[in-house]
Amino acid sequence: MTSVIMGPFATQILAALGADVIKVESPEGDNMRHVGPMRNPGMGPIFLQANQGKRSVVLDLKQAAARQALLQLLADADVFISNVRPQAMARLGLDWQMLEQSHPRLIHVSCCGFDQAGPYAAKPAYDDLIQGATGVPWLAQQYGGGEPSYAPMTLGDRVTGLHAVYAVTAALYARDKSGRGQAVVVPMFEAMTQFILGDHMAGLSFEPPLGDAGYARLLTRHRKPYRTSDGHLCVLIYNNKHWHSFFNAIGQGERMREPMFATHGQRAANIDAVYAEVASLMRERSTAEWRALLDAADVPNMPMASPEDLLADPHHAATGFVREIEHPSEGRLRTTANPTQWSATPPGREASAAPQLGQHTLQVLREAGLGEAQIAALQASGGCMQASSSNDKRETDICPAI
């Protein structure tokens, strides 16, 4: 029972690792089905990327019979993940307190907005709100000046989704030892607070404070891709070795004796002036000249890429990380592989294409033991829905159900 980004991102990673992920959707489907350019209704690009390798079941959980069908699905499941507000899950009878007695081995993972012990527990939460509440727009304003702004990606959703993945694996490991399931709460506000303050607590780490919040190197307005004579280049001259190599490469080795360049501490204390000086030097050569010079000196640098550049990156081409797949209804699609590499136990199967709405409803309900009469009654009442174009076929995978 996950939708939009946070939960689907987590379960897509689990699917890529071999889990049999059953996506329970409402009759309207995941909202992200309807966002972005698409060839067919309900198959938007963000949905396609976040739901590979899953099976889609449509249940109208407002109906008691549909809720009972879901409970039958959970009988054989290892993990039940939702990013529905806990209060709504309780109203449906799908909270841990209700499920613990009937499903004692189930891992119940709630990806929610806030720790349920605090005053924000029942508040709605979306990525923009959590970014704002954890200081992202404030940091953007310190860095760039002008109006505060959100990061141009679903930062809170994806950070929290990654926390959910390791929470699932740790809970499964604990169950192997204890034999019992448990409830795990993964709150966005707390996950993002930890993420942001890890860099920016700074002087506030101490009581009483030793200074203000903010990591100066990350907040200087000079921290950006450097302009060259014909474009931009990303360069990070970080440690003493890099600085010696950089100045030697441009024939200015004596500059390491200047106080503001001499030590890591001096560079940190004068970060604005340091970055401004490098910016001035970078304008003297072309991007290609700088890349050749810096690569030869082993000074860290990378090109500034657009999404189009990233898809065509020669490194990704060599590793096969960016790949094309054939989707049964959407045709040829670009996607990415799982970024992890395994020496002994790689995931056992390639992730299949993202499902159509309700593509696997009948198949999954039959696997859960529902009889044909029960399924027919559910269909007649609108309690479940099967995609009309589905062929209702799928190879059997030996992996956990989620």
β-sheet strand percentage: 5-15%
Unreliably modeled segments: 390-402
User: Quick one: CATH class of the largest domain?
Assistant: Alpha Beta
CATH superfamily of the largest domain: Crotonobetainyl-coa:carnitine coa-transferase, domain 1
Principal-axes shape call: elongated
Q: Gyration radius, to the nearest Å?
A: 26 Å
Oligomer: single chain
CATH architectural name of the largest domain:
3-Layer(aba) Sandwich
How many domains in all? 2
CATH topology term of the largest domain:
Rossmann fold
Gap between N and C termini, in Å?
10 Å
Biggest beta-sheet profile: 3 strands, mixed
Trace the largest sheet across and list its strands.
1-2-11
Helix content: 40-55%
Structural class: alpha/beta
DSSP summary, beta strand count: 11
Give the mean pLDDT. Answer: 94
Describe this structure in words.
With 402 residues, the chain is α/β, with parallel strands linked by helices. The protein contains 19 helices and 11 strands. The chain has helices spanning 6-16, 45-50, 64-74, 86-91, 96-102, 127-133, 136-144, 155-178, 188-200, 216-219, 240-249, 259-262, 264-269, 271-282, 287-297, 307-311, 314-319, 361-367, 372-381; strands at 21-25, 54-59, 79-82, 107-112, 182-187, 226-227, 232-235, 301-303, 322-327, 331-336, 384-385. The strands form 4 sheets. It has a 3-stranded mixed sheet with strand order 1-2-11. The chain has a 3-stranded parallel sheet with strand order 3-4-5. The N and C termini lie close together (10 Å).
